[in-house]
Amino acid sequence: MFDWGFTLALVTNGVLIGLMYSLIALGFVLVYKATDAINFAQGEFVMLAGFIITGMLLLAGAPFWLSVPVAVLGMVAFGFGLERVVLRPLIGRPIIAVIMATIGLATVLRGAAPLFFGAETQALPLPIPDEPIVLGPFSLPPGQVVGALLSLGFLAAFSWFFLKSRMGVAMRAVADNQQVAMAMGINVERYFAIAWGMAGIVAALGGLAWGALLGVDVHLALVGLKVFPVVILGGLDSVLGAIVGGLIVGIVENLAAGYLDPLVGGGTKDFAPYVLMILMLMIRPYGIFGKRRIERV
Amino acid sequence: MFHRESGYYKTSYAADMALYPLPIARWTVAAVALATCIAPFVLHEYYVSILNLIMVATVGALGLNILVGYTGQISIGHAAFMSVGAYTAANLAVRLDLPFWVTLPAGGLMAAAIGAIVGIPSLRIKGLYLAIATLAGQLIIEWTINHVPWISGGAQASIEVPRPTLFGTQLKTQFQLYWFLLFFAVLAIVGTLNLVRSRIGRAFIAIRDQDIAAEIIGINIFRYKLLAFAISSFYAGVTGVLYTYYLGIANYEQFQIVTSIDYLAMIIIGGLGSILGSIFGAIFVTLLPIVIRLGMENWGSFLFGDADIRNLIPNLRLILFGGLIILFLVLEPEGLNRLWRNIRSYFRVWPFSY
User: I need a labelling partner for A27 at 20 to 30 A (CA). Which of A232, A275, B58, B275 fits?
Assistant: First the structure.
């Protein structure tokens, strides 16, 4: 007997969670698209943003409308600084150098954040009512709806940015070919910094949404591990891909948790997206929407 | 014997390929060998146990360096290969009661097989994609071990393993384990030294430097990349087995992604593509938490309260650890090995540097 209501609930939840994954993945895609650098510290960015928001709310006693902009500005400054100090000297170096630098950065953040903000899990209450939003047969938790809406908002904003704005077009040029972009008078290094700053904005709002869902502590950084299946499935350099990949991962992991967990005893939620990702890597490594770069190995 | 030279004067390939290019290298190696033989007799058992950990780490770092430093591939899942070796050996030792000289190669071979499978994507993808594929390998292997009681022995996924027996005596003390581990560490060092001078090692280096050019001069990339993964995973598997025998227990918590990153840090801090660097890195990364703990316990009270120190130590380790990775990458990409070479070449022509 197939339970449609149960499946529907799993899928709805998967869609919401998936859009929240997309929110984190967007930051990753932005940086990769513009600078070809891989940010293994995206989860830690989100954690840091969550810590800044709760730090402002609880430690400094600031109101909510002030805490979030401070977190956004703080993360932008962090992104700029990081690009300047760590990433810029690594331009032109082998890919493992960049990967290891961001892994090192992740380690530093995971060690440093609890020292400044405390090791306990801090709740991050959103200033919205707690009751689930009921839409016909669906009942949606408001925190996740906010996260999903933020994600869709960013999709719209970035689509406009990359297609219409002068800065966005320049950034696409940089992503396409750095040397040609340089020859056309685009300040490539400036756009690298801007990309990292934008990743900071996305991470700040990701920290808000995820912090409200899970509470803010060091384990918040673990959502970063979900970024990889999302971006590989969707395509590393595609904003739309981040959204679609997020949806796929969210739905698949919820269905796996609902139907496979009782059979094998739990944990498939973290496992299924990676199996899917391996299959994708074998068949179509550039993802669903990624640019097909012909690179023979 | 103690003459000074003013340059490289090699006139034959044999001289170029010699393990000890200079007489003084032979003396240094002899001095280090002597020191390692005397050390366990004069040091306290605690320090011997640290040396043991360093030797286990050396084997793993050498293996990872063959893959990352010499072949230019990347693996963020090396700890998973160690766990494959560890659980293979543990199951063989407990269920079939096999001695270590069977379980050790068996663990290594099993890890090599799994490593080669995880390495298959390296034939189609490289760089970032390979990093993520090996990361997936790590998570999938970890999950499998944790969720299949037939492998993991059920409760808390850990298996108690009897210590290895040699000539009828069971190696229980740190002193006895020292010689056991030293044998394998030296074997791994000499093995790697010879591997990278051989045809295979040269092929690895060629693939790292320019894979298309390597293919054109007739290197079978398919074979050598898989071989690099297999050899590297073999070392990792042996590391896992050695560590299991050292601890007396096989536990997946010792082989999580953090451990993979520890080993990557070893070869980056020590020096990519260098055997001495792997040893330096293993020493450095193993000693770092110990030095931090000692330092904080002895001098931390000047700066912090007593209760804070205990919370501070693990965080401080993470900060220093990550910070050092970044510092070495930005400032000295060739690692400790390069620093050592700089010092050495400075003194080599000293005082007549012209």
Answer: A275
Residue in A33, A44, A108 to test binding to B, most B beta-carbons within 10 Å: A108
* B78 min Cα distance to partner chain A (Å): 14
B203 sits in which H/E element: helix B199-209
| A239 lies in some domain | no
Q: Among the CATH numbers 1.10.890, 1.10.3470, 1.50.10, 3.30.1050, which is that of B43-348?
A: 1.10.3470
Query: Residues B70, B272: contact at Cβ < 8 Å?
Result: no
Residue type, A212: A
B33: Cβ contacts below 8 Å, ≥ 6 apart: none
Q: Measured between CB atoms, does B122 come within 8 Å of chain A?
A: yes
CA distance A225 to B312: 26
Residue B216 forms contact with A (CB below 8 Å): no
* Predicted local confidence at residue B245, as pLDDT: 87
Residue A273 falls inside a structural domain: no
* Inter-residue contact A72 to A52 (CB < 8 Å): no
At residue B233, does pLDDT exceed 90? yes
User: Where in chain B are the domains?
Assistant: 43-348
Whether residue B322 and residue A296 make contact (CB cut-off 8 A), yes or no, is: no
- Those residues whose C-beta lies under 8 Å from the C-beta of residue B3, and which sit 6 or more positions away, are none
- Decide if A21 contacts A227 (C-beta within 8 A): yes
Q: Does B313 touch chain A (CB under 8 A)?
A: no
Look at residue A297 and tell me if it is in a domain: no
Mutate: best of B114, B125, B132, B215, partner A, most A CBs <10 A:
B132
Contact residues on chain A for B65, CB-CB shorter than 8 A: none
ipTM: 0.82
pLDDT class of B17 with cuts at 50, 70, 90: low
Across the interface, of B127, B135, B329, the residue whose CB is closest to A100 is: B329
Domain-embedded: residue A3: no
The DSSP code sequence of A65-103 is: HHHHHHHHHHHHHHHHHHIIIIIGGGTTS-HHHHHHHHH
- Give chain A's mean pLDDT: 83
A274 with B140: Cβ contact below 8 A? yes
Residues of B in Cβ contact (< 8 Å) with A41: none
Q: Using the beta-carbon criterion (under 8 Å), do A99 and B125 form an inter-chain contact?
A: no
Q: Which residues contact A73 (CB under 8 A, 6 or more apart)?
A: none
For the segment A39-46, the average pLDDT, to the nearest whole number, is 88
Structure confidence by residue, pLDDT tens digits, B270-300: 888 888 889 999 999 899 888 888 887 777 6
d(CA B277, CA B304): 35
Overall domain count for chain A: 1
Chain B (268-297) residues lying within 8 Å, Cβ to Cβ, of chain A: 268, 272
The DSSP call for residue B237 is H
Domain that holds residue A28: 12-116+139-223
